[in-house]
Amino acid sequence: MSATSDNWYFKKEELIQAYGTDYKEEVTARRLAVGFLQEAGMKLRLPQLTIATAIVFFHRFYVRHSLKDYDTHVIASTSLFLAGKVEETPKKLREVVIVTYRIRNKGHDDLKIDSKEFWDLKEDLLLHERIVLQTIAFDLTIDHPYK
After folding, report:
1. Rg of the chain (C-alpha set)
2. What pLDDT is recorded for position 111?
3. Distance, CA of 1 to chain centre
4. For residue range 105-143, what is the model confidence (pLDDT) as tens digits?
5. DSSP 20
6. Residue 92: burial class (beta carbons within 10 Å; 0-12, 13-18, 19+)
7. How many helices and strands (H and E) does the chain possess?
8. What are the two backbone dihedrals, phi and then psi, of residue 4, each rounded to the nearest 5 degrees?
9. Dist. CA 34–CA 36, nearest whole Å
10. Which pTM does this prediction carry?
């Protein structure tokens, strides 16, 4: 399966072939990640357009990479942070890290801003922002049907 930065449309057969025998697992994992993005976006009070853009970035990333190669929550959080910038509704990195941490770790203590874990999560998100941008060939243009 090949894609240029101008062409993000694939036939179902191409996607099934790319996912291999794990097609159903892939679809399930993607649905869970989209739910995570939707919940995080709403808690961050992002417009639906920004959340939709994050979902597109997430899917574009995983067209080129296996779900097993990168943590879906990290890529989803990164996609949300990036979409906020692209759609001119940015949220501070700190807010994105805290909200996504709370969703991912329900029932655990809140993340302390001065903790090593917080700083590691921030650095991880910034590192993955570069990886996502490279993977999607810096193609940040999304044509939403309802824009």
Report:
1. 15
2. 84
3. 21
4. 987 778 888 899 999 999 999 999 999 999 998 989 888
5. G
6. exposed
7. 6, 0
8. -100, 170
9. 5
10. 0.87
